[in-house]
Amino acid sequence: MRASPLNQIMEEEESTIDMTPMLDVVFIMLIFFIVTASFVKEAGIDVNRPDAPTAVVKPNTSILIAINADGEVWLDKRQIDVRSVEANVRRLKAENPKGSVVIQADKKADVETLIKVMDGSRAAGAYDVSIAAND
């Protein structure tokens, strides 16, 4: 007995696997991971940080401010005036209310500039201010 053409078509359809639902799930997962990923922001310059044997890693850092040896203040890869730290931190704090501020000060940075940056950050409502150091 020969197989009818209808049976042949049915057998061919059963032997293939439809990949569309799996691809849909993969793309949805990819979009989910992209949206929920937290990206590391850089201050904009490399700073020679001092060593501190008691330094600990700060996991939820969203605002990085760098102070180089010349007293320049950098935030989001651009140089800012020390007087505008409060406004910039307030703007970034509004984007991420749970984020903390980490100040990366050079070993030779002026302490007065560091204090002004800390005061500006606290005046903007960021009370979790840390100073970066090498461990």
TrEMBL record:
A molecular function (GO) held by this record is: transmembrane transporter activity
Protein location = Cell membrane
- What's the protein's topology in the membrane? Single-pass membrane protein; Single-pass type II membrane protein
Q: What is its main location?
A: membrane
| GO annotations of cellular component type | plasma membrane
Parts of the chain that traverse the membrane: 20-40
BP GO annotations:
protein transport
Keywords (alphabetical) are:
Cell membrane, Membrane, Protein transport, Transmembrane, Transmembrane helix, Transport
Q: Any keyword Protein transport?
A: yes
Q: Which family does it belong to?
A: Belongs to the ExbD/TolR family.
Protein name stated in the entry: Biopolymer transporter ExbD
> Which species expresses this protein natively?
Catenovulum maritimum
What does UniProt list as this organism's lineage?
Answer: Bacteria, Pseudomonadati, Pseudomonadota, Gammaproteobacteria, Alteromonadales
